[in-house]
Amino acid sequence: MSDRTFTYVGTRPVRHDGMDKVTGRANYGADFSLPGMLHGVVVRSPHAHARIVSIDTHEAEAVPGVLAVVTARDIPETRAKLMLGEGALDLRDISENLLARTKVLYHGHTVAAVAATTLDAAREGAARVKVTYEVLEPVMTIEQALAANAPILHSDMITKGQHGAKAPSNVAARMELKRGDVGNGFTQADVVVEREFRTPTVHQGYIEPHACVARWGEDGRAFVWCSTQGPFAVRDQCAAVLGMDAAQVKVIPSEIGGGFGGKIVVYLEPLAVALSRKARRPVKMVMGREEVFRATGPTSGTRIRMKLGATRDGTFVAADASLYYEAGAYRGSPAGAGMMCLVAPYRIPNFVIEAFDVVVNKPKVAAYRAPGSPTASFAIESVIDELARELRLDPIDLRLKNAVVEGDAAPFGPAYGPIGLKALLEAARRHPHWKTPLAANQGRGVACGFWFNAGMNSSATVTLNMDGSAAVVTGNPDIGGTRAAQALMVSEELGIPVERIRPGVGDTDSSGYTDVTGGSRVCYATGMAVIGAAQDVREQLRARAAKIWNVDVASVTWEKGHAVPPKGAEKAEPLSVNDLAAKMTHTGGPIVGRASLYAPMAGPGFGAHICDLEVDPETGRSRVVRYTAFQDVGKAVHPSFVEGQIQGGAAQGIGWALNEEYVFDKNGVMENAGFLDYRMPVASDLPMIETVLIEVANPLHPYGVRGVGEVPIVPPLAAVANAMRDATGIRFTELPLSPPRVLAALNHEPTPVRTSDELSAVKADS
Amino acid sequence: MAKLHVHTTVNGEAAEFLCEPHETLLAALRNELGLTGTKEGCATGDCGACSILLDGRLVPSCLVLAAESQDRAVTTIEGLALGDALHPLQRKFLEHAALQCGICTPGFIVAAKALLDRQPEPTEQEARFWLAGNLCRCTGYDKIIRAVLDTAAEMRKTAV
Amino acid sequence: MQVIRYEAPRSVTDAVRLMQADPGAQILAGGTDLLVQFRAGLRRPTAFIDIKRIPELVGITLDDGGLRLGAATAAAVICEHAEVKRLWPGLVEAVRLIGSTQIQGRGTVGGNLCNASPAADTTCALIVNRATCAIAGPAGERVLPVDEFCTGPGKTALRAGEFLVALHIPRPGPRTADAYLRLIPRSEMDIAVVSAGVSVTLAPDGTCSAARVAIGAVAPTALLVAEAAGALVGSRLDETALSRAGAAASAAAKPIDDKRGTVAYRRTTAGVLTRRAARTAAARARGH
Fold first, then answer.
1. Residue C257, CB half-sphere, CA atoms under 13 Å: how many?
2. Which residues of A touch B103 (CB under 8 A)?
3. What pLDDT shows up at residue C52?
4. What kind of fold does domain C55-169 have according to CATH?
5. Strands B73-75, B4-10: pairing kind
6. How far apart are alpha carbons B36 and B14 in whole angstroms?
7. Lowest mean pLDDT segment, chosen from A714-723, A756-765, B41-50
8. Which residue from A716, A735, A736, A719 is spatially nearest to A727, judged by alpha carbons?
9. Between 3.40.50.300, 3.30.230.10, 3.30.390.50, 3.40.50.720, what CATH number should domain C192-287 receive?
10. Type and span of the H or E element at A49
11. Which are the contacts of C130, defined by CB distance < 8 A and separation ≥ 6?
12. CA–CA gap between residue B109 and residue A23 (Å, rounded)
């Protein structure tokens, strides 16, 4: 499969939606309006943890212009489970996150929503919703959540997977992954390194805030326009939360201004539908940036203890780790995924890894690009770096020595198929970046990363037009350029030039069921459906040619976009797609190809990054001066967009390592809920990011495609931290590596920023 | 609270609208004039998605009152193309795959135009610092900077 | 619901009259602080008095007396002025650091000063260059040295109905140069964690005959640190003198812990930045 030569796949055509995006014509969530539309505004909890005593909406409803107010009373109570993405979620949690019923569990938690004829009137109405709270002590850290007399967020939460657990707890679940005999394993180790790592809450940082327009019709059908990674996910959540049939909800996805996992769970859409139902008018809701930070789904803060033992020659013999992940207000952090990814790149015969899903009074976490893996990688890749120093081995050589290859068992069970981890580590070692001398105050770090990449449900249709052009429709919103990739696939299968393919994103009525754009699955799984649909068209074209030539369809071959007749067929010349398309009406009618499938898990993705960091020893400021990312991408369908995914993921990881963090005050209120003080990398913070694509074909996909979008965010945290270690001689185990933290360590001062211990101390004082 | 009647020029054409005194130019462009190419990312001047030119000067339209545009010239992303022809920046952004989700793209293109209007030969560092007020979360900025520098090079060639 | 007016007076007299008639009215220059605070509900003006259509408020005049900066002149306009950049490189450095390019297109030095953030980028540079503030109000016009203008976080010496019309900066004498440095975690966009402005004058024999040092973001207002200047005067601006100036700056700093920095961090880096800014100012003064 890796020997296959492609005509279109691997080229770099201009993306089909590009024109609209560079001219400002593309319509995103907030760019849509309906006549008679109202504006909806959310009322949010001022407390991080409190019981709701009463909600009085009378004054709000009396404000001129206010036409509807909704609270939890307006939606049914439920305990069902909802299949969403890769797992089942408790519908009660989703519902209560959307509208708090008895308790508010984070600062910013929604308690009501107001719709009015103007935004000012809606804000006025929101200000007049009177909520009485019984304020409770907030739980803001893992330590506070685990403490003996910790306030309990959910009185019915008993730790799943904890033998003998009976009393209510803030630990939702304990998970474990084991192999071999860890006790014995460590006795064989010549060197053991153990460290504890901490990472803060960080946000996906998509530039487009959540936005939607909803309209409730007299026939009980709801229409929703929204920015989302999954129109079917929106449909199913709205229907489930509001007690409707999925068929009664139609969702049209707009162009989406970034998601990274944060636009799968809904925060506005059911509210807008409920408001529209009450007001009998369409309702538009757009979040402000502060709301996005306070009340959507950032990712988990973590505490990870990592212990790794190796023999003198560098062979890993045993690993022992405890992973604590904050889930936020409701259960469901990616602790389990972190546990499965932790040792995935390495052959380790003995390990025990436990993972804990811990609730705290912060917004409920949502997926963020390879959820669970970046922080796990930060821990193990930092420890491996320390081991390399103790053993006096080159950091890449140490990883190569232990890297998994085809046939090795993944820590979560199945054997790896063909994978490119060793190939990319070797490419890194050979690369000039690894050998270039460093200047003063500079350090270099390397780290690896892993992500599973998902499969799941996908559907696609390909419609052939009479002029030989074609349209392909899937249900996947396009975040990274997947429409361009889909067009390339159709071109490859049918021989139609890529400019004559129109790739589109359907809605929940016009597309077959499709799981979300996420999980690095669109090019892989939806790609397979697209290829299947295109092949379906090709089969139909062969049949039409056979009919025209009056031969058996089995004798008709397909070559370079033409149906080719068997030798000896009378009056038969090869027919192109254009020829056959022109004749479609008279040879049997329209030609529409379709495919739908549940794809097996895509096939593992690995990456390795090299980072050069320069540190100012007098101020603790650092900047990335060079960065190279190596990744096994299977097959790069559109190389520019694959490179773009890698560069973007690396940039997010760099931000996570250097400056991004949620800062909370002692009342659990986020202090930096804006782009000024939540510091994402800007253009002048980064150098060019070189990408090296390795292609080890994935046998599960006709072209060898592997998911690529998530792996790139996994290695940067440790790559940067290892570079910092190299530059300063100090091993930082807590992120971010902000200047005050770095300078304090350089000056041997006590760590200045708010650690959990300090927060506990503050709590003890108050 | 009577609305203000504002007369201004947008993308070279006379335009007028009614607005509240405290309404921003961003809101007026999007809601009164239907020009939704300019985006709101933060409403505090920190992300650049609302970038426009006001009398040729790059500004964040979320921090300009609509009323201030009276008798001034406003340029938005919708005004960059010359008839059917894309502005060289727009072409180069497409060629270099300098956009993924595209939400920051209008702001970047307007900001980059302001750069090239003043500095036809920017260095990579100059381009990065000029564009530091435009946040992108998808691309890591690499292809955006390449597109801008390549546009500068092309425009210098055709200018000569 | 909010009832707000927008006014755009064409003269200082009209602006004074509007401000006097409505105590709740607020001056709107670039709007980069006011509109953010308005959106956040921190300021609730009854009217926006847009002063950008008043000729005296916008524009740069440079003559033998020195520089006159209209208070509502956009930062970008100041940074584009070649002569101003040549004579006051530190001031222009400071002005250029006010936010992004977009913010530069709107933000003004007057607005930056009147917002009176302890971390404002222009205050230190204005102080070391001995700027004075021309103020207009119901009682007429008056002048105030810029060191006395900010009185606390968000507080200025402006009385009811008064507003800033212009800033005056005397021409630097021979062998005089300034520098300004700001410490932020990223490379752009952040509010200063610490800042330092320095102006030095060299005697013909190369010793420092005069100096002014101001540090920012380490106290409720920018601090003019006489001891730091004292460490420079009489010296050849060698590393020892620079270090002593830095130490004096650290000692004078009265910083707080907040989401941008800690006490220890700000105290240490106030000294580092002072030393570095002084080094740059010295090099510039020697280059003249």
1. 6
2. 28, 206-208, 255, 257-258
3. 97
4. 3.30.465
5. parallel
6. 18
7. A756-765
8. A719
9. 3.30.390.50
10. none
11. C145, C146, C169, C170, C212
12. 9
**Alpha helices per DSSP H over B35-141:** 88-95, 105-118, 124-130
- Reading the block at residue C84, the tokens are 């101003």
Structural domain boundaries of chain A? Answer: 18-25+455-599, 32-136+210-286, 302-404+414-453+601-765
C186, C190, C194, C276, best to mutate vs chain A, most A CBs in 10 Å = C186
The total domain count for chain B is: 2
- Domain ranges in chain C are 5-53, 55-169, 192-287
Alpha-carbon Rg for chain A in angstroms = 27
At residue A87, does pLDDT exceed 80?
no
Average pLDDT over chain C reads 95
| Number of residues in chain C | 288
Contact A739 C262 (CB under 8 A): no
Residues 6+ apart with CB under 8 A from C127: C146, C147, C197, C212, C214, C222, C224
Q: What is the CATH number of domain A302-404+414-453+601-765?
A: 3.30.365.10
With 80 as the cut, is the pLDDT of residue B159 above it?
no
For residue A465, give every residue at least 6 positions away whose Cβ sits within 8 Å of its Cβ, in sequence order, or none: A471, A581
Q: Which residues contact B13 (CB under 8 A, 6 or more apart)?
A: none
Handedness of CA A544, A545, A549, A550 (dihedral sign): negative
Name the phi and psi angles at A653, rounded to 5. -65, -40
Q: What is the pLDDT of residue A88?
A: 66
- Which chain B residue has its CA at the smallest distance from C107's CA? B59
Beta bridge partners of A445: A611
Closest chain B residue by Cα to residue A288 = B42
Q: What is the pLDDT of residue A751?
A: 56
Alpha carbon distances (Å) from C230 to A436, C214, C226, C239, C242 = 46, 12, 6, 15, 11
Residue with tokens 């030989």: A468
Question: What letter represents residue A213's amino acid?
Answer: V
Mean residue pLDDT of chain B comes to 96
Query: Cβ(A272)–Cβ(A40) under 8 Å?
Result: yes
How does strand C25-28 pair with strand C47-50? parallel
Residues in chain B: 160
Residues in B closer than 8 angstroms to A647, CB to CB, are: 139-143
Residue type, C64: D
Beta carbons of A443 and A723 less than 8 angstroms apart: yes
- Closest Cα partner for C57 from C206, C191, C204, C165? C165
Mean per-residue pLDDT, A676-699: 96
Per residue in A57-72, pLDDT tens? 999 999 999 999 999 9
Residue range A12-52, pLDDT digits in tens: 988 889 999 999 999 999 999 999 999 999 999 999 999 99
**CA C89/CA C79 separation, integer angstroms:** 10
Tokens read off for A390: 């103790």
Can you tell me which residue has the tokens 């031969």? A551
CATH 3.40.50.300 fits A32-136+210-286, yes or no: no
Cα–Cα distance, A756 to C204 (Å, whole number): 57
Residues of A in contact with B39 (CB under 8 A): 28, 30, 207-208, 257
Q: Which residues of C touch A762 (CB under 8 A)?
A: none
Do A18-25+455-599 and A32-136+210-286 share a fold?
Answer: no
A623 touching B, CB under 8 A?
no
Domain ranges, residue B69: 4-79
Q: Please state which CATH number belongs to domain A18-25+455-599.
A: 3.30.365.10
**Domain C5-53 in CATH 3.30.930.10:** no
